[in-house]
Amino acid sequence: MEFADVIRLIGRRWIVVVLVTLLGGVAGFAGAILLTPSYESEVNLLFDRETPAEAGGASQDLLQRMPTFAALTTTATVLDPVAERVSYPGGVRALREKVTAVAPDSTLLLRITVTDPEPARAARLADAVAGSYAEAVRDDFGAGAQGDRVVVTTVQPGTIPAEPAWPSVPLFVAAGAVAGLVIVVLVLLTVTTVRRTRPE
């Protein structure tokens, strides 16, 4: 069957095609609504030296250490106090799976993101992790190569997200509609082919 035949087939059965496509979109919407949403709240931390440095040497040293600072975010030193303070379900292991940290290239920023089914709790946890991280830097991680200290400042606190990061309702609706369209076209093609090849 050629492409033109497929187009003519869809044209003859356009009502069925439209209905099944709409049903696919409705199914995608229902799936998105039934799934447990995940909300993300983000905190940005800025790193600097406690004492001014000469000719930007300290800044370069900090830039080189930023990937390490990011990796330290999910250590027990940072997350244990948070998990205990908020009595997080599943403890520090479960909390570790909800926390990510990245240091954008060529910046002294650390971006901490916390995911949670409740938007308000996501924001509270993000702020709590940032606070615990700042304490850990002050007490454990913050010694510089020349004895000076690293200072961490919150430049963007956690905010309550208005929309879930996952699932995306528009994406699920579109995927459901496309799936419905593909299925109905395949069924129509199969039925038409069988009818044409059936001996009379």
From TrEMBL:
Which InterPro entries does this chain map to?
Bact_polysacc_biosynth/exp
Per the record, the domain of life is Bacteria
> Which segments cross the bilayer?
14-35, 171-194
Transmembrane keyword on record: yes
Q: Which UniProt keywords apply?
A: Membrane, Transmembrane, Transmembrane helix
Full protein name: Capsular polysaccharide biosynthesis protein
Q: Which organism is it from?
A: Amycolatopsis cihanbeyliensis
